[in-house]
Give the backbone structure.
Amino acid sequence: MKIYLAFDIGGTKLKYALISEQGQLLKRYSESTIVSSKSEFIKRFNQIVDKFETQISGIGVSVPGKVDFQTQKISFGGSLPFLDGISFNEILNTRLPVFVENDANAATLAEMWLGSLRDVNSGVMLVLGTAVGSGIMINKRLLYGVHQQAGEVSFVSYSKLDKEHMMGSQGSAVALIEDIARNAKLSELDDGRAVFKMINQGNSYAVNRFKIFCQNLASLIYNMQTILDVERFVIGGGISQQSIVVKGINQALCDLRQTSSFVSTTLEAPRVVSSRLYNDANLFGAISHFELRDVNNLSQNIEDN
C-alpha cells in the first residue's frame, strides 16, 4: 500500500497527514506555521519530510497563492508572502515526487476524488473562509485558465474594485462570525460555535447578518451558473459543517430565482450541497494527483487555454 505525506499550509496552522492511496487518513498532525522567517519555515518543512521519508511514496502540498502548474513555482503567498517564488521541488531535500497545488484547487480535487464532486461531470467548489476560494471542474477536468487564475471569485465585484465591494469580503465566513460575535460582545471573536448557536436560537441580529451572507453567496452561485451551467456547487470550509449553511444558501438561491418568473422558467438551478471532507479537503487534494492520474489532462487543459 502506498502512503503519501500531505501538507496544508495556512497562515496560522501547518497541517500535515499520512494518507493511503485508497484515501484513508492514517495520521493527522498540526502545529503553528512558522511565519518569522523563510529559512526557518523551510528548515522545519524539511525536518517533517525527513521524519517520514522512508514511509512515503510522494509529497503533496496545498498552499495559498497561485501555483504554476508546469514549474510548480508559487506566486503571491497570501498571508505568507515569503512563499512567493518558492518551488518545493527545489527547497526540499528529497528525491520523492512532489506536487504543489493552490489551496482552493486542492479542495476541489479532493471532492473530485473522494467527495461531493465524485459522481458528477461538471461542478464548482466554493471554500468559505477568510475570503471565498473556488475551483471549477468541467468535464471531469480542473479548469486553470490562461493565467491559471480561473475561479478567483473573491475578486468578483459588486460595482467597485475595493475590498468592501468584492465577494471575498461579502462572502467571508470569518467576517460573518466576527461581526456577530462583536455585536454580541463575545469574549472570543472567532467563536463560531457560539455564533451558530445564536443563529439557530433566532437572535435577530445574528439571523439577519447570516441571511445577508447567504444572499451574497446565492448571488455568486446564480451568476456563475449563468456562465458555467454546472450540475453541482459544493460548499466547503469549516463553516460547511453547520447544516444551516447549505440550507440557508439554497433558500436564498430559491428566493432570488423566484423574483423573476423569466429566470426561474428559463434557467435550470444547480444543486448546492455540502463538502464531504470539510477541513481535511486540502490535505486529500494535495496528494490527489498521485491517485487521480490527471496530470496529462490538466496540462493539456492549460495548453488549450
